[in-house]
Amino acid sequence: MLEPSEGIPAVIVDQAALLTAVAQLAAGTGPVAFDAERASGYRYSQRAYLVQVRRRGSGTHLIDPIALTDLTCVQDAIGDAEWVLHAASQDLPCLSEVGLRPRRLFDTELAGRLLGYERVGLGIMVEKILGFTLEKGHSAADWSTRPLPEPWLRYAALDVELLVELRDVLETELEAQGKLSFAREEFATIAAAPPREPRPDLWRRTSGIHRVRNRRQLAAVRSMWTARDRIARERDVAPGRVLPDSAIIEAVLANPADVEALTRLPIFSGPRLRRSARTWFTALREAAGLPEDTLPMPAAAGGDTLPPPSRWADRDPVAAARLAQVRARLAAIAAERTMPVENLLEPALARRLAWSPPQPVTVELVAGMLRDGGARPWQVALTAGPVADALTEPAQAESPAAGVQQTASQDAGSPETPSRPDVPDVPDEGA
Question: Residue 181 in contact with residue 77, Cβ under 8 Å?
Fold first, then answer.
């Protein structure tokens, strides 16, 4: 499919055109397909730079949310109609900023995961399920560009062209597999979720921070990260385009004595970073002058943060054995239900239960901890009993190491609260 069925619609940039689109959406029927394009990797903000809406009987509408910052009239036009999005949690925050919030939701990506599809990208799923190959290739474009090029608009319109049709097939498959109620609970949770709070200590996500060995160096990373974040916010530029993470780490490890020494580092030798070198050196000096008791602690020190699973066997072999047993039970249920284990139960929640189970271990107390941790009713129903059994099984001597080694990949991108970076950076090579 190289062209939208009704052609590429003109971008709506004025109130009169918006009201015409609103009337058409109100006259349409059935679910409403939504999508949004951001400028991740180019801009600091995660705002929407294009909103795509499609409904049967209405056609596709491309709306410029920079020119039209309040789209509540679109919300009013569709009322209680179900929204259809692919990977809804990515787009809902920026849609909410312009007054668009779903009352009912169907997430085609999440539906694909629950159904056990190995690959759940929109293009792959449309091709596999509907038999159409969509023209792709502009997802990583700078959507803050104005005017938007026609090939980008074609791509944007195609993203919602078949979304409702995909939703209909997936709903049928969910019902056939006995998972439709699971999906509805998941969708309702996403639709009702409050705005996400900024994650604390985002500077700890600096790529390469594992090379930093002491608290003074951690303070230097924090100081440079904070200076970069301030500049990026003021300029509305992605932080990685101001200063790549690799430059922060290299400067901290080198600990240059003056600005000239900083610019002798290869990564600071280019004209752009040489011009801003004094800013980064000042940040390093500020960290060097901090009192010892104000230096940041290592991430795993203090608080409720759990140690990495790879260290459980040394820190608490019994807990490591419990984790291996819990994971084995969850993996068996996920395989039986043909879904990823992380969709059956959040890995961080399984780890917290294994590290500090309720006392005494009963199905009721485990279920309570699962609910308190955010598990949905369907997840509690499927996992509370097996997890309680796993927590009370006798620990096997070889279970800790084996369990950690066999499931290390589960934790390779599974922080305690899985989410995409709040402010994605472009790779250092492109900065």
Answer: no
Quick one: tokens of 336?
A: 């039986």
Which strands form 105-107's sheet, in the order they lie side by side?
A: 11-12, 59-63, 50-56, 29-37, 83-85, 105-107
What is the C-alpha to C-alpha distance for residues 419 and 278, in angstroms, rounded to an integer?
A: 34
Rounded Cα–Cα distance for residues 84 and 171 (Å): 12
Q: Domain boundaries in the chain?
A: 11-192, 202-298, 309-411
Domains 11-192 and 202-298 in one fold: no
Regarding beta strands 29-37 and 50-56, do their DSSP bridges make them parallel or antiparallel, or are they unpaired?
Answer: antiparallel
The class that CATH gives domain 309-411 is mainly alpha
User: Given CA atoms 17, 19, 23, 24 in this order, what sign does their dihedral have?
Assistant: positive
Task: Output the average pLDDT for the chain.
Answer: 90
338 has a pLDDT exceeding 50: yes
pLDDT of 214: 96
3-state SS, the chain, equals CCCCCCCCCCEECCHHHHHHHHHHHHHCEEEEEEEEECCCCCCCCCCCCEEEEEEECCEEEEECCCCCCCCHHHHHHHCCCCEEECCHHHHHHHHHHCCCCCCCEEEHHHHHHHCCCCCCCHHHHHHHHHCCCCCCCCCCCCCCCCCCCHHHHHHHHHHHHCHHHHHHHHHHHHHHCCCHHHHHHHHHHHHHCCCCCCCCCHHHHCCCHHHCCCHHHHHHHHHHHHHHHHHHHHHCCCHHHHCCHHHHHHHHHHCCCCHHHHHCCHHHCCHHHHHCHHHHHHHHHHHHCCCHHHCCCCCCCCCCCCCCHHHHHHHCHHHHHHHHHHHHHHHHHHHHHCCCHHHHCCHHHHHHHHHCCCCCCCHHHHHHHHHHCCCCHHHHHHHHHHHHHHHHCCCCCCHHHHHHHHCHHHHCCCCCCCCCCCCCCCCHHHC
Cβ neighbours around 295 below 10 Å, total:
16
Report domain 11-192's class.
alpha beta
pTM: 0.86
Among residues 158, 144, 165, 127, the alpha carbon closest in space to that of 67 is found at 144
pLDDT of residue 373 exceeding 70, the answer is yes
pLDDT of 414 reads 39
Structure tokens at 190: 């996403």
Fold of 202-298: DNA polymerase; domain 1 (1.10.150)
Using alpha carbons, select from 330, 380, 387 the residue that is nearest to residue 353: 387
Q: What single letter denotes the amino acid at residue 314? A: D
